[in-house]
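Exercise 7. Predict the joint structure of the components listed below.
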Amino acid sequence: MDWFDSWALSLAVFIPVVGALVILAIPKAREYQIKVVGLVASIAALIVGIGILSRWNWDDGGYQFEVNKGWLSAIRSNYHIALDGISLPLFILTLVIVVLCIIYSWNHWPEPRSPKMLLFLILLLETGMLGTFVSLDLILFFVFFEVTLLPMYFIIGIWGGEQRIYASIKFFLFTLFGSAFMLVGFLALFFLSEPHTFDIVELSANGGAAAAVISSTAGLWIFAGLFLGFAIKVPMFPLHTWLPDAHTQAPTVGSVILAAILLKLGTYGFVRIALPILPQAAHSWAPWIGLLAVIGIIYGSLCCLAQTDLKRLIAFSSVGHMGFVMLGIATLTPVGINAAIFGMIAHGVVTGMLFFVAGSIHERYHTRDMSRLGGMLSSIPRMGGVFVLVAFASLGLPALAGFPGEFTSMLASFEPAGGLSQSLFRGFMIAAAVGTVLTAGYMLYMLQRVAQGEVPGEYAGHHLHDIEAPEYVSWTPLIVLTVALGIFPSLVFNVTNSSVVPMFEQIFHHAIGG
Amino acid sequence: MLIADAIAAPPSDWWAIAPQLVLGGTAVVIILMICVKRVDPGWNALVAAVGTVASGVFAWEQWRQVTTDANPRLAYSGMIAVDGFSAFLVLVVCVAAFLGVLLADQYFKREGIDRGEYYALLLFSACGMQFMAAANNLVMVFVALELLSICLYVLSAWNRDDSRSQEAGAKYLLLGAYSSAILLFGIALLYGGTGTTNLARMAEIFSENVTREPGLVLLGMVFVIVGLGFKIAAVPFHMWTPDVYQGAPTPVVGFMASGAKIAGFAGLFRVLETGLAAFEFDWQPLLVGLAIVTMLGGSILAIAQRDVKRMLAYSSIAHAGFILTGLASGTAAGVRGALFYLVAYVFMIAGAFGVVALLARRGERYTSLDDYRDMFRREPVLATVLAFFLFAMAGIPGTSGFVAKFAVFTGVADAHQWVLLTVGTVASVISAYFYLRLVVYMYMRPEVDEGEAQPAALPRVRWAPATVVALVLTVFFTIQLGILPQGLLDMAGKATLLF
Amino acid sequence: MQLGDYLPIAVMGLLALIFGGASYVLSGLLAPRKPTPEKLQPYECGIVPEYEPPQRFPVQFYLIAVIFIAFDIEVIFMYPWAVRMRDLGMFGFALMGSFMVMLIVPLIYIIREGVLDWAPRRRHSRDELIARYRAEHEAAAREEAA
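Solution:
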């Protein structure tokens, strides 16, 4: 199986794009074939992912399935890909979510109906996302990071709601703006490091020794550039304004992929690139990141309370949840990073699921205005039940997926890394705890308006379909994950911890001296 | 008698100017064809295409013979230099001319102004561009510039029944003549300061430090930069560009935008990097400033445009800024990036104008943004191709545009010019906005607002084989250079070695 | 040569500017103004124009003049060669020969394009005209016979 070890990642990354090209070749009228090809391509990638899981060495925290081939020798950029405990969960999550999205759309395609284009874009998007998670070369990372931009832009712009053009352009320009500064940061890293390299592993080895020659001022600036690129993607307050628009306008599958995976590219970038390569700069910026994260938590929750649009509410809740993730990262401790990665996975599963349900609700009621919704538990009880379950997971009820990540993140901020102000981070912790209360508040308020109560008069005579077959198929895995992650958080923590701990020993013991 | 001996055996190195000779010769053959009997201009186009390919073969042979360690091979008393730089750009000019020929036939037949002379003029112009690439003497630079420009003046006004085309030709002629005068003045000052027009000799004089008049040289340098700045359409010498690009027949614009820019940059690179290399610390800040205002100016002004051709004109101005950035970095990596950018740019701009020419229909009626509404539904293939070129120009990874920008910025970062680098990236984001807007119009806006009457559907655009070949070539290379750019990057690197 | 040597030129330029500017400003200030519609027309030798300016007009004179200048100047290149013809030998001959070809091809071209035709261009060849005349003549004869 040697060939598998060296080819598995490339296969998983590029199978979707091959599928996309095949779809392009099929005439538009043969819709069934198009759908089958799309599904098969995404499932094939998932099978490769399962193969990777089956051959995964769970005790090894280093890079596995590594490939390092020359690519652009002129600029010393290599095709260097691998997975470790930090990227593996996100990688698998991506594979799963895309399959579920395709299944979910099987019978209801958003208007204007064009399965061919939508599937083409989704598969292209999948390649971009998978590639970002496996890249260990800054340029390769950047290329994949940007590749995700276009398909999502089209998905929002073509299949979105009323304000879709505004939302899609805003999404595109915000992200492009950030990534432009990120690219400047990458180039600066390359030319200021010794030896010149784009390789993430080399740059982060020995506590960012290659980058240690960079003066601390330059390091701060470079980190700021990277921060802009990643923080816009996360999104962190005050760079989050594209998110509610994009989420509200995007079609269901677009929202799901955006929430479940695309946002993680930003936080993943912090964990994979910004922290290990520039630990000292990270240390200087950490209080500010923590502050913004906490503001994000509180602000996101308060905004949620004011929303009337269901999807917009969920979007703002993402700002809050990603705030917890960033708070975990800002503590610069193994516990915090573990919490952050868990938070990413949990948010991907739970919020993805929330957007699925919100999409289905919109399809049935033809509105997302919560004042016109209501009585789901009595009119469509199964979907109402699922919705309640997921909402509880999102508000952080113990034994569901939302809890372990947020709790651990707060735990980590009780004891931040050496040199960071303890009292400050404990203040952050208290604020975050207030945030969880607010989260519970708006989630319950939402449930009260949407799930409970009477069916509004305008829908009284209508028969609303409860969960349908494609929805069952696409939701079951996520619901199972929601419960499983809540009960056995070690499922994820074991994997991530095996990589996070060695990473921290490498970085912070060298750089900050414990 | 002595004089007679000295001129008795002048060396004639036909091989050194073989690509130029082939292009010029082909143009003469086309004129002769017309003299004998006017046939369908398609035949003239065929001859022209064959000529550019043959010229490209010679250029390729020159390229293969270029050695990296030796001095440039000089010919005609140092008028012509054959080195990696010249062979590389001569080859690129062949590509631009080839695309120009392919894209022309269908358009001019549609407009009813197809005449064989077009191809002869195009080839003469390309011949001038090639001489520009190989020029090693300021006089040669000027002669080559005039040869290419005069042909382009005529080509811009080719559609003489169309007042827009007339206006374009007249404007281009006036401002072009003006810029030539400035360039000539600069050349005269440089001659006054050094006593030679030969660029290699000029560099020697500077290295011997016997400059008689540095003030004259500096003044001459500024005038040369301004004169060539007109040709490459750098802000603030760009004023003619939007009007000319909007008015001239679209295939001419495609050729002009790619070819004239190659030639202008060839001259600029050669003069600054060879002749005035000793004054690098003087011209570098000038170019940095020029690059910054060009990138920002082109990108920002493009946002205000409602006409697609005009928008692409401003976009080409912005591209000139990015290419200048590579030169302004003063590093080998930057120049290499700039050369790569030129190649990528040729394919992108030729392809984009090719599509715009098709979509504009007879009489170039449909070029405003609103005419592109819902183009994806009406012309799915063409809209997708155009969107692809737009994304490439915006620098989205996976296309040659990204690698080109990246290669240029690498050079800038190598020089640690962080301000220039930041401005460059910001400008590229700004430029993404107007590319994106056109995509929005093509993909996301309905053809008419609600309540308006649906206009009568236009017949589908027909494709001539030559157009298809040109578009396939441009798309292919834009992708290929985006995914596997190594080969061309190496070539561009080899082309910069001699500086 | 010093940059200072150019000072007279600069002074000259300055004087020219002052003179031009002063005449313009002074004539504007001093000249009496009694505009009539005719006076506001574009200047055309004092005659009130009868046509709109952008009418087409024959350019034959201009063409001939331009062509004359073009070919006239090319001849200058031949003088140096003629002086040194024997020394330059076959090389010079070949070079001048190709130069002559370059000149002759455009000459043929412009003649074919009708630059030297002063009358409106003949649209039909002589044979065609004869054939048409005959056809008309025969048709008329047939009508008469009928």
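Discussion. The CA atoms of residues 395 and 440 of chain A lie 5 Å apart.
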